[in-house]
Write a structure and sequence with these properties.
Shape: rod-shaped
Number of helices: 6
Distance between the termini: 151 Å
Strand content: under 5%
Structural class: mainly alpha
Oligomer: single chain
Number of strands: 0
Order of helices and strands: HHHHHH
Helix content: over 70%
Length: 193
């Protein structure tokens, strides 16, 4: 029985030295892919050229795979199409970055200009409002002084009541002056002696 086990071990040892299972699997997959490619390109290429290409690819990939499995590390080389695509992408991204920087600069300049214009309009409106308020206050003050200084006999209490605020909503936070207001209103209604 031990002889039988030893033969099995020897067979396994011999089989691993001769054929790499990973390389065998890849070779089978490449055969399948090659058959698919042959069906697609049969009209374009002759079958002899396809077989030669397949054999070259198969032998190259088997040697690359066995080198990688055995520990020989070769630098990975990208296909030319991928290199070209990367270069195009890099150029496109650089162009977009430049365009974005230019657009940011334009927007910053435009924003600065708009802010300056807004402040200019704001200052103009503020000055106009100040001027209007000053004129209105001067006019109101002149009218008040003229009213105050105008003496009309029998209207003393009328002038006093004009100076008082009889609106109950405006006097919420002050002392109760309702009695004084009522006295002033009575005096206003009575004729002067």
């Amino acid at each position: 029985m031990s002889d039988h086990l030893d033969d099995g071990v020897n067979k396994l040892d011999n089989s691993t030295d001769d054929v790499d299972p990973a390389a065998e699997f890849i070779a089978r997959e490449q055969n399948v892919l090659a058959e698919i490619e042959q069906d697609d390109h049969r009209d374009e290429n002759s079958s002899e050229t396809s077989n030669n290409m397949y054999n070259n690819i198969n032998s190259n990939s088997n040697s690359n795979l066995s080198n990688q499995i055995n520990g020989d590390k070769q630098p990975f080389q990208e296909p030319e199409k991928i290199k070209k695509w990367r270069e195009e992408q890099r150029a496109m991204l650089n162009a977009k970055d430049e365009e974005e920087a230019k657009r940011k600069k334009e927007l910053a300049e435009q924003a600065k200009k708009e802010v300056e214009e807004w402040y200019t309009r704001y200052r103009e409106q503020l000055n106009k409002s100040k001027q209007t308020n000053r004129e209105a206050c001067k006019n109101a003050e002149k009218e008040w002084i003229a009213e105050r200084d105008a003496e009309a006999p029998g209207q003393e209490w009328e002038r006093i009541t004009r100076m008082c605020d009889f609106n109950p909503k405006s006097s919420r936070n002050s002392k109760d002056t309702s009695r004084m207001k009522s006295i002033l209103l009575q005096l206003k209604q009575q004729p002067a002696p």
